[in-house]
Amino acid sequence: MQDRGQPPNLITYNSLLDGMLKNKKLDKALVLYSLMKERGIIPDIYTYNIFIDGLCKSGRLKNAIEIFHDLSIKGYHPNVRTYTIMIDGLCKAGLLHKALAFLSKMEDNGSLPDAVTCKIIIRVLLKKGEKDKAVELLREMISRGLLQGEKQMEADGSGRHIALLETAEMADYLKNYMAEEGL
């Protein structure tokens, strides 16, 4: 790309970083990140989402939390994807109480959870045998209008659009999970 006179841009760097982190090449990603900044490419919230996600999936939750907290200091505003990545990482680490604190912080900061966020929390609540809380959360999300009957679209870190679950799909998921687990 560069040999054809086309210097890499933020999208190029984000794509490369995403690939490196998905392949657990954190050290190489950090070197590329430094190179990106040296070349005057300023990271955006998607860059940080890619790093936070990669760190969470690599078992480096503490580092992911540090980066998350640094965002506001650097003037970035975490979006629903940023919070969802953190909530998912915390849930997978067995830290439901911290995930619920992030959910609360998310709403306090004006970023409303979506169907993906809710599904993550509901899945963990069900696995912990807290079906009443799971149903309560689902009902609360529906009553607050956070889960709409129509499909929502959200751009993820790579610029692709992902379809989110419909309310009916969420209810079906909950019902099927409970049936499978004998709840």
From TrEMBL:
Gene3D superfamilies: Tetratricopeptide repeat domain (1.25.40.10). PROSITE patterns: PPR (PS51375). The lineage of its organism: Eukaryota, Viridiplantae, Streptophyta, Embryophyta, Tracheophyta. InterPro entries: PPR-containing_protein (IPR050667), PPR_rpt (IPR002885), TPR-like_helical_dom_sf (IPR011990). PPR repeats lie at residues 9-43, 44-78, 79-113, 114-148. The keyword Protein biosynthesis does not apply. Keywords: Repeat. The keyword Nucleus does not apply. It comes from Stylosanthes scabra. Belongs to the PPR family. P subfamily. It comes from the Eukaryota. This is Pentatricopeptide repeat-containing protein. Pfam families: PPR (PF01535), PPR_1 (PF12854), PPR_2 (PF13041). PANTHER family: MEMBRANE-ASSOCIATED SALT-INDUCIBLE PROTEIN-LIKE (PTHR47939), OS03G0201400 PROTEIN (PTHR47939:SF13).
